[in-house]
Design a protein that fits this description.
Length: about 900
């Protein structure tokens, strides 16, 4: 458009994209191009994160069969006043329906603080709504251009499970940014660093934490988590989900500040019929008519009650999607007399309905396997029971070694590994002797001294390499896998290694590497030629460099971390240890200790050192624990040999969901039902809910100060320190046998069998030891416990903030036992805080391996501790019924009693 007087200036104004710009009035005039401002590094990183999160949860929504063009459920979400902050603080109410997602998201964005809590019963659609809100918010943000003010005003939602957060040991911001860096390692860098901390610290609330599963945290952590969130958020947005019962069980003064609370309402009969009608094919509607008639005629009946939750509606649609299925069986009042019977039936039939055993189609690039419905149900039930025992919902392949079968097989496997290493070393020496002509002199010297020394050197250097890696990286946690850089990208590996360390860490690692290398080369300092000496030193340095560089986390992929990607990285680490690091140490050992005069001995020493170094690196890797767990679970019939492939197929079928590098069951309710109703193939003992031997007979006495005294029979120690010393002792005896020239399998296995037998005897003795008596006293003024001979723990209630039952800790690690713990007020006397106690919880009294108190003890705590008492969640144990959930902090006793009346103490 041209505008101006004749002979005056001409302004050419246009919008859009132009290939050629011509100023017709004056070809020699100036042309001013005003380009939009380029995006900042923070904006680019936020946009890349939004794209990665959207791709991640779009795939999850497809696996769950929700969102997109799928029929949406008309779940109503209404404001809830109880346990919510003042309306003046929240800025208003949020209400809406799940099938009108845009209106619900707009109402959330209009809140001043943009904080929302989603509550509801089991299966009410809390997680599904959180995922759909995340995807809708990301659609709005990605629809704009990078750098637009309207686009950048929308936060980037990041959905995480709260199960892995321990508020007692890690601040929320540190946990959130760490998980973000682990799940999305390839985001564009800001100043050479991962943008997680920069985006979190940026003002304007760039990131929106979407936290799922407050109710899935251990009971003792929930109140602490809410308080930590109030401290960490300040002016940041938040979306959090929880079951209503667990949210109400929080202490009365514990509320999420400036957070609007909405609760899911039951799905009406009309909405349930409409959803099932639109979900089924038109020709399949007649099969559903008996169900529709029953729901309309009896809206308060068991079938209508069961179909009032989104989870059950989804399960009903999936279970009866097959043409030969009969939904009309749900109307059988004799077979399904109660709402719970309908729900249990749908939960039990869900796995067989998706694992049909049919031959999969071959037109897919990676089709699912043919899994038997009975086998799939048994496998998933065993995994669910393991998660219930661990009090978690995260199914991580690198933690499956904590199953009972894997723990039982760990010690024999370690001894067997020592036997195999020694036998291989002996066999290598024998082959070298035969290849060199069968001389007995050099072979005798090699067997008695140098062979065992070379094996020992390999084992020590393997352990030292792992120590070096842990020292170099600030964010490296032992036993936790991560995606690493490929050997084909050395420049990227060096860049990533430097990004994930500090100057002090790098200097510490260098100072650690020098004495290790010196100790490796000290025996030949005066005998080796300079050329061989520097060749050996170069091999040792190269091995350390490869270990550090290619253990660096990968920065190339912006997509979310997956379990299979982590396992592939561990496979690469094992291959690297076996074919790169181990051979480098072997070459160094050969050229340093023996030289070219006796090449046969150099070859033997190099091979044995290679074997020891690679074996140790593989032994302490997450892959070895995964291999042990996979083998033991397969041998006991609790999992297939292709376990990772099975988990992947279960995820594709909608049974599991994928949260970063771990799997979770689609719903905690499904996990609990599979854990209870599925046999693992092993013998299930009928056990009581709590240890009946814990409280002695006539062990309850009233005290003069209005309290109660309880005599508790606490189990003695399990001799764990002695049993922990058995593996190195067994390996030591094997090395002694090797040093003495033992080559027969019987002589090699004798010391291992001896120590294995001693370990079994000690384990049996630990169970046969008599119990010690602990005097637990609970009064309106204090709680104390006296354990002979003179160990007494005492806390006044005025110094206690909370008291609950939780796992005991030893040496900064959780043990397999539980105890009564108290959390002290910050202003408690300094003398109550032991300098050795680094946690916020103090142990009062052990209660054994079950996390449930006798009813009398629990009642005394509720009466005397008042609001300080935090009822624990009663996890399912083998043989017990479903896990009860208190509706508020004051009715735990009634809930517990009703549970025992319904299921009995043995869960029958």
């Amino acid at each position: 458009m041209a505008d101006g007087q004749p002979g005056g200036d001409v302004n050419n104004i246009f919008q859009g994209t132009a290939d050629i710009v011509i100023q017709f009035r004056d070809n020699f005039g100036e042309i001013h191009v005003h380009a939009p401002p380029s995006a900042t590094p923070s904006e680019k990183s936020a946009h890349a994160l939004a794209e990665a999160v959207y791709r991640q949860w779009r795939e999850e929504a497809k696996a769950w069969d929700v969102g997109g063009d799928r029929a949406a459920m008309a779940v109503r979400w209404a404001p809830r006043r109880r346990r919510a902050d003042h309306v003046a603080h929240t800025g208003g109410d949020v209400r809406g329906r799940a099938d009108q997602l845009a209106d619900l998201l707009t109402a959330f964005l209009m809140l001043p603080k943009r904080r929302l809590a989603l509550l509801g019963a089991a299966g009410s659609g809390k997680t599904t709504l959180a995922v759909l809100l995340t995807m809708e918010l990301l659609r709005r943000r990605l629809a704009g251009r990078v750098g637009d003010a309207s686009t950048e005003s929308l936060p980037v939602p990041v959905l995480l499970s709260l199960t892995s957060w321990d508020p007692d040991r890690e601040e929320f911001g540190a946990w959130f940014t760490r998980r973000l860096a682990e799940d999305h390692p390839g985001l564009p860098r800001i100043g050479g660093r991962h943008p997680a901390r920069e985006l979190w610290s940026t003002s304007g609330s760039v990131l929106l934490p979407v936290l799922d599963g407050l109710d899935e945290m251990p009971g003792a952590r929930r109140s602490a988590a809410v308080k930590a969130l109030n401290r960490a958020l300040y002016d940041r947005p938040l979306i959090i989900t929880s079951r209503t019962a667990e949210f109400d069980a929080l202490s009365p003064e514990t509320v999420l500040g400036h957070t609007a609370v909405i609760e899911a309402r039951p799905v009406t009969a009309t909405a349930a019929v409409a959803y099932l009608t639109h979900s089924a094919a038109p020709d399949a509607s007649p099969r559903w008519e008996p169900v529709f008639a029953e729901v309309r005629e009896r809206p308060d009946g068991p079938l209508a009650g069961a179909l009032s939750t989104p989870l059950m509606l989804s399960l009903a649609r999936t279970v009866y999607a097959r043409p030969w299925s009969e939904p009309a069986e749900l109307t059988d009042r004799v077979r399904f007399p109660s709402r719970r019977s309908v729900e249990d039936h749908l939960l039990d039939q869900f796995v067989p309905s998706v694992f049909t055993g049919e031959i999969p189609s071959d037109d897919r690039l990676d089709p699912p396997r043919r899994w038997s419905p009975s086998h799939a149900r048994r496998y998933l039930g065993a995994l669910a029971r393991h998660l219930q025992a661990q009090e978690t919902t995260e199914l991580a392949w690198w933690r499956l070694h904590r199953t009972p079968a894997a723990r039982l097989a760990a010690f024999p496997a370690l001894v067997l590994l020592g036997v195999v290493l020694s036998a291989l070393a002996t066999g290598l020496g024998r082959r070298v002797r035969e290849a060199s002509g069968g001389g007995t002199g050099p072979w005798g010297a090699l067997t008695s001294m140098q062979l065992s020394t070379a094996l020992f050197a390999g084992v020590v250097t393997g352990m030292a390499t792992q120590m070096l890696v842990r020292t170099w990286y600030t964010d490296h946690r032992f036993g936790e896998p991560r995606r690493t850089v490929s050997l084909r990208r050395p420049v990227a590996a060096a860049r990533s290694a430097w990004r994930h360390t500090t100057r002090l860490r790098a200097l510490s690692a260098a100072l650690l590497a020098v004495p290790i290398a010196a100790g490796f080369e000290a025996p030949v300092l005066h005998t080796a030629t300079p050329g061989l000496y520097w060749l050996g030193a170069g091999c040792v340095a190269a091995a350390f460099a490869v270990a550090v560089l290619f253990t660096a986390p990968s920065d190339a992929d912006e997509n979310a971390t997956t379990p299979r990607a982590l396992l592939r990285a561990e496979h690469a680490a094992v291959t690297r240890a076996l074919f790169v690091i181990g051979p480098l140490f072997g070459v160094a050992s050969g050229v340093l200790h023996y030289g070219p005069d006796d090449m046969s001995m150099a070859y033997a020493a190099g091979l044995v050192t290679w074997l020891g170094a690679a074996g140790m690196l593989i032994l302490i890797s997450p892959w070895s624990r995964w291999a042990l767990a996979r083998t033991t679970l397969a041998l006991t019939g609790q999992a297939p040999w292709a376990l990772m492939r099975f988990l992947q197929d279960a995820h594709r079928q909608g049974v599991l969901r994928q949260v970063a590098g771990t799997y979770q069951f689609r719903n905690a309710w499904l996990q609990e039902r599979l854990a209870i109703s599925t046999s693992t193939g092993l013998r299930n003992r009928s056990t009581s809910l709590y240890d009946e031997r814990l409280l002695a007979e006539d062990g309850i006495t009233a005290t003069s100060d209005g309290g109660w005294a309880f005599r508790l029979n606490v189990r003695r120690g399990t001799l764990a320190p002695i049993k922990a010393a058995l593996p190195p002792a067994a390996l030591f005896t094997l090395s002694v046998a090797l040093r003495n020239g033992a080559s027969e399998p019987a002589r090699l296995c004798a010391p291992a069998a001896l120590f294995l037998g001693i370990g079994g005897i000690l384990s049996g003795l630990s169970w046969l030891l008599p119990r010690r008596v602990a005097d637990l006293r609970i009064s309106p003024h204090r709680i104390s416990c006296l354990t002979p001979p003179k160990r007494e723990v005492r806390f006044d209630w005025t110094h206690v903030a909370e008291v609950t039952v939780r796992r005991s800790r030893g040496r900064n690690a959780e043990t397999g036992t539980y105890g009564i713990h108290v959390r002290l007020h910050p202003d408690a006397p300094h003398g109550l805080r032991s300098p050795k106690d680094k946690g916020a919880w103090r142990l009062v009294c052990d209660i054994g391996r079950r996390p449930v108190l006798p009813p009398a003890v629990e009642e005394a705590l509720r009466d005397c501790a008042a609001e300080r008492w935090v009822p624990p969640a009663f996890p399912s144990v083998p043989g017990d019924g479903p896990r009860p959930r208190a509706t508020n902090a004051g009715d735990t006793r009634n809930d517990f009693t009703q549970w025992e009346k319904e299921f009995g103490p043995s869960g029958s």
